[in-house]
Amino acid sequence: MEAPPLSVVAVLSLLACGAQAAAAVLLARWFGGRSSATDRWTLAWLFYDVIVHVTLEGPFVYLSLVGTVATSEGALAELWREYGQADRRWLVSDPSVVSVELLTVVLDSSLALLLIHAILHHKYYRHFVQISLCVCELYGGWMTFCPEWLTGCPNLNTSSRLHLWVYLVFFNGVWVLLPALLLGQSWAALRRLHQLQDVPGRKHR
């Protein structure tokens, strides 16, 4: 598998992603200073989730609705053209991809913001929102890649380590691994709550 030198756009794109992650960690420390360590890391992920959906995927949806990434101008179009080298569907306003991204930008961002509020203020609906968000994220990933797998991956370029392991596996795998872990956290929290309610002699309201 080839390892071509990184282009300037690739380097700047990776640096931008790093800056987004750093901003998310700083926001989690700022707003979640009194939260548990687990909740601070959860908040960092949620802030990163919102930042990416709004600042990267939001512009992608806009560019795809008014034209295509391939024919658009500007820094964000260049960033998406870089990712489009790994998945060509992002260059041509593929209806399935745009539909999933539109739902992601609007619904997932809103749920993530609501979940941040629920964690910071210890709201009773925290795990309901957390489960809803995680299912949406996992569904989005499935509907993005399952059609490709069923058709033999005609749009995916896995000819280089950068395209395969960084763009396709890492940047998409994060949105599978972390929602799956948060689903497990919600399962455990709801199980503990159920066990507390079933303590012998405990009065139920």
Keywords:
globular, 205 residues, cholestenol delta-isomerase activity, 0% strand, mainly alpha, 6 helices
General description of the model:
Keywords: Membrane, Signal, Transmembrane, Transmembrane helix. It is found in: Membrane. InterPro entries: EBP, EXPERA. This protein has 205 residues and is mainly α. The protein has one domain. The protein is built from 6 helices and no strands. The longest helix is centred in the last third of the chain and has 37 residues, at 161-197. The model has no long low-confidence stretch (mean pLDDT 93).
Unreliable stretches (pLDDT < 50, length at least 5) are none
Instruction: Report the portion of residues in β strands.
Output: under 5%
Classify the secondary structure makeup into a structural class: mainly alpha
Number of DSSP strands? 0
Query: Overall 3D geometry?
Result: globular
The overall average pLDDT, rounded, is 93
Question: Order of helices and strands, N to C?
Answer: HHHHHH
Number of domains: 1
Number of helix segments?
A: 6
Residue share in helix? over 70%
Question: Distance between the terminal alpha carbons, to the nearest Å?
Answer: 62 Å
Cα gyration radius (Å): 19 Å
**Main pleated-sheet profile:** none
